[in-house]
Design a protein that fits this description.
This protein has about 325 residues and is an alpha/beta fold. It is built from seven helices and 18 strands. The longest helix is centred in the last third of the chain and has 19 residues.
């Protein structure tokens, strides 16, 4: 508990959270890493934490935010995006009226995607931080650089958290700037089930060159998971990267999409099939033009030419949980 409290405190301090601040804890309280352990860590910092949790539901959460006026919000990026849509319906106010200055996200790669970062920061009028870790002596957080630079490693004194191996052969990958591979971790000070060169299936990119923010040390970026990786005609495609391209076409798109697979990956028989929501109000010709623009952008940026079906806004259910981008439709 002491190690966990110290590491979370390092991350939250980097984000600007200080003793006496009010913070809304909107991760699921039942989560092993980001639930009660975060509440405990914030209390140890002297923070006034409101342990509402995602389980309370969006209506109760938003009303508590309005009544208590927290300076910081902690939640998954999917939930932060979801609240943008539902706040006007529940409160009659935009999330930008809630007074939130800091948002710390974890649990999925969304906070590192440029278009989603821009959407969340502009909607709330807050600074968004991407976080990862919480157990086994590991904690990483993004910085205040104008463009996302990955997450700074804050737990080098407690763990070795960014060793890389080849996902298929498990051979070590040299830790040079820009290296990509499957992350394996080793805890140096963790008595309960300490991991030794253990993998949870994440694909990392490592940066060793100095960050433009001035903070020293290595940085990591989560590209996806081994079980999310898709291979289309030899090209590796991560769902999070596809979502980032779709988000870049807002407001013509809602940012919502699904990748449709006929069988489990990673290998996908071309073309890659996508269903993408277009914003209501677009005329038929404009929807077709958007479809063509998406195909060209995905080909240019990800080197795949997908089959894109456009569906109207509201087709996909919004959720406060992690968004599942892949659907399986066996033929």
């Amino acid at each position: 508990m002491e190690v966990t409290n110290r590491l979370w405190a390092r991350g939250f301090w980097r984000a600007g959270i200080r003793p006496g601040d009010t913070v809304m804890q909107a991760f699921g309280l039942s989560m092993f890493l980001a639930g009660v352990p975060i509440v405990r860590a914030l209390e140890s910092m002297g923070v006034r934490v409101i342990p509402c949790g995602a389980e309370a539901g969006s209506e109760r959460l938003l009303k508590l935010i309005w009544w208590t006026r927290p300076r910081a919000l902690l939640c998954t990026p999917s939930y932060a995006e979801y609240l943008i849509d539902v706040a006007p319906k529940i409160l009659g106010k935009d999330v930008g009226d809630l007074g939130i200055e800091i948002i710390c996200c974890a649990g999925e790669p969304g906070a590192g995607l440029p278009e989603l970062r821009r959407k969340i920061e502009e909607s709330y009028g807050a600074r968004l931080y991407d976080m990862l870790g919480g157990a086994h002596g590991i904690l990483n957080i993004s910085c205040d650089a104008p463009e996302y630079q990955g997450m700074h490693v804050l737990g080098d004194d407690f763990s070795i958290s960014y060793d890389l191996v080849d996902p298929e052969t498990k051979a070590p990958i040299p830790l040079v700037d820009g290296a990509i591979g499957e992350r394996v971790k080793t805890s140096l000070e963790w008595e309960a089930q300490p991991p030794v060169r253990y993998s949870v299936g994440d694909i990392y990119q490592i940066f060793t060159e100095p960050c433009m923010c001035g903070q020293p040390g290595p940085r990591i970026k989560v590209l996806g998971r081994i079980d999310d990786l898709l291979i289309v005609k030899g090209v590796k495609v991560y769902p999070a990267a596809v979502k980032n391209v779709i988000e870049s076409f807002a407001p013509r798109t809602t940012g919502e999409l699904r990748i449709v697979l006929n069988e489990p990956g990673p290998r996908v028989s071309p073309p890659l099939k996508l269903r993408v929501e277009y914003r209501s109000g677009l005329e038929k010709d404009a929807v077709e033009m958007l479809r063509q623009d998406l195909i060209e952008a995905l080909h240019r940026r990800l080197r795949v030419r997908p089959k894109v079906d456009m569906v109207p806004e509201g087709t996909f259910e919004r959720t406060r949980h992690k968004t599942k981008l892949i659907e399986y439709h066996p033929e």
